[in-house]
Each structure stands twice: as C-alpha cells, then as structure tokens.
Design brief:
By secondary structure, the chain is α+β, with helices and mostly antiparallel strands. The protein has two domains: 95 residues; 132 residues, Mannose-Binding Protein A, Chain A (Roll), CATH 3.10.100. The strands form four sheets. The chain has a three-stranded antiparallel beta sheet with strand order 1-2-10. Strand 1 and strand 2 form a beta hairpin. The longest helix is centred in the N-terminal third of the chain and has 131 residues. The protein is elongated, with a radius of gyration of 62 Å. 16% of the residues are buried.
C-alpha cells in the first residue's frame, strides 16, 4: 500500500499554508489560555494578600490608637507625679523647721527634766531633814510631856488674854467717832458709811451713790476714812457676816453701821464672782437678808472694808 503525505491531501500550497497558520494559532491559543489561567491564579492570590494586608493595617491602626491612649495616660500620670513632687518640695522647708523645733523642744524638755530631777533631789533632802527634826521633836515631847503641856497651856491662856484685850479695844467710842467699826468676831474694820457719803464732825452727811461692780473696787482703793487707807471691796462671805438671814438690818449693834439712804438698808456689791458666769457677781441685800448673783453692770451700794 502506498503511503501518502499530508501535502497530498491539500490541493495547493495555499491550503497547506492556511493549515499551518491555523495550527500555529491553535498553539498560541493554548499558550494564551495557560497564561490567562496563571494570571487569574496570581490575581486571586494577590487579592488574598491585599485582604490580609488590609486586616493587618486595621490591627496596626487599632494598636496605634491603644498606644496613643497609653501615652496620654502616661503623660497625665507624669504631670500628676511632677505636681506631687513640687508640693513635697514646697513642704520640705516647713518639715525641716518643724523638725528643728521638735529637736529644740526635746532639748529643752531634757534640760527641764534634769532641773526637775535636781529639784526633786533637793526636796527629798529637805524632807529627810524635816523628818529628822520632827523625829527629834517627838522624842523631846515624849521625854518632857508635862513641860510641853504647860507651854501649850500658857500659850492658849496668853492668846485668850490677847483676844479679850483686843475686844476691849474694838468698837470703842473713839473708834466709832472716826466713822469706822471693827467687828470683834472677824477682826475686820468696816466703814460705818457707804461710798458717796461724807463723815464729818462725828456724823454722816448725804446719801450714798450706786456704782457698777467695775467701778466699786476702784472707789474702795481711793477711799479714805478715819485716817485709814488700804480699803477694799469685801468678799461675799465677809459681807454676809453683817447680814441677818431673811431679816432686815445689819448684824451689829444698832446704828454702828449707817444706812446708805433713809429707810433703806441697801443692796451692796461684793468682790466675789457669781456662780452664773463671768458677767455676774455676788450681791448682799440687807433690806431682805438675801444674797444673789447680779449683772456686773448693775448699780449697787458699796461699803468698804479693811483689816483692823
């Protein structure tokens, strides 16, 4: 059998060229399809990479925001710490001064403790000496009881004699003529008249004046009567010795103490503060025989007193 060539099937050379060209086109087409498929695959991979990059960028942006917030917080904390440091630095001189004062006080306290220890030692020495003296006196008393009792008895008798003699001299007509009266029970010398009255030629002239508590003491210090000075405002307890409880009048012989005004034995100031507060002082009412607290600004009569 005779073999036929491919060119035998084609009528002419032109047809052969067309077939060859077609075959080349087919080869190119297959190559293009392969390349297109590769490009599509690469494009898909590129899109995946792009999505991954976008996701990573988003995560990075979130991290950047978090870091910025942390940085802001750190800046705030740094400012706060700086402010606290400045405040502590400002307080440091004051703390140093307080420390120096505390050290000075500690030093003074140590010195005072040392002085106190010395004083206590001195007092202990004095105490021991006094105890020794007392012990010696006790021994003397035990050895001479009769002699000691005799000395005490003589002293008591002498004191009683002095008191009797003093009572004879007190409230004498001469003393009363000077405008004063000495109470034999208390030994206090009282003005027979009140502040504001005048003692002249053995008798009282005029009416007494009323004074506030604040002026009463000053007037007593300026007061002069019978040639005596050293007058003062009496204490409540002293003034109450002249009062008859719940009765009108003075606790003394009649007319020894004179009324401040006619028909009134008077409400008098004492120097004693009242129990109701600093704004009060004790008064004594000889018209009613009572004693109460009164405002110091109130005006009352004043009778001066002194030691005889």
């Amino acid at each position: 059998m005779q073999n036929n060539l491919l060119s035998d099937f084609f009528v002419s050379h032109t047809e052969l060229s067309a077939v060859d060209h077609f075959m080349q086109l087919m080869v190119k087409t297959n190559t293009f399809d392969n390349r297109l498929q590769i490009l599509q695959q690469q494009l898909q991979q590129s899109e995946k990479l792009q999505l991954k990059v976008i996701q990573q960028n988003k995560e990075l942006n979130d991290n950047i925001v978090d870091l910025q917030q942390l940085q802001d917080n750190y800046q705030i904390e740094i400012k706060t710490l700086k402010k606290q440091l400045q405040e502590q630095a400002a307080k440091l001189p004051l703390l140093n001064n307080e420390l120096q004062e505390a050290q000075q006080l500690q030093k003074q306290s140590a010195q005072q403790n040392e002085l106190l220890c010395k004083k206590i030692a001195e007092l202990e020495l004095i105490k021991n000496k006094n105890n020794q003296v007392i012990e010696n006196l006790k021994q003397k008393i035990q050895l001479q009881p009769v002699e000691y009792e005799e000395v005490v008895r003589k002293k008591i008798i002498h004191h009683d004699d002095e008191m009797q003699e003093r009572k004879k001299l007190l409230s004498s007509p001469k003393e009363l003529s000077y405008g004063v009266w000495t109470d034999p029970d208390t030994g206090l010398m009282w003005a027979r008249i009140s502040i504001g009255q005048i003692w002249q030629n053995g008798r009282c002239i005029g009416d007494a004046k009323k004074l506030s508590w604040f002026d009463a003491e000053a007037e007593c210090k300026k007061f002069r009567l019978g040639g005596y000075s050293g007058w003062r405002l009496p204490k409540a307890a002293e003034l109450q010795t002249l009062m008859m409880n719940q009765k009108t009048g003075y606790n003394c012989p009649e007319d020894f103490l004179l009324k401040p005004v006619e028909n009134d034995f008077g409400l008098y100031w004492s120097s004693s503060s009242g129990s109701s507060g600093n704004s009060y002082a004790k008064d004594v009412n000889f018209q009613s025989g009572t004693s109460y607290d009164s405002f110091k600004s109130k005006c009352c009569y004043v009778r001066a007193v002194r030691l005889a």
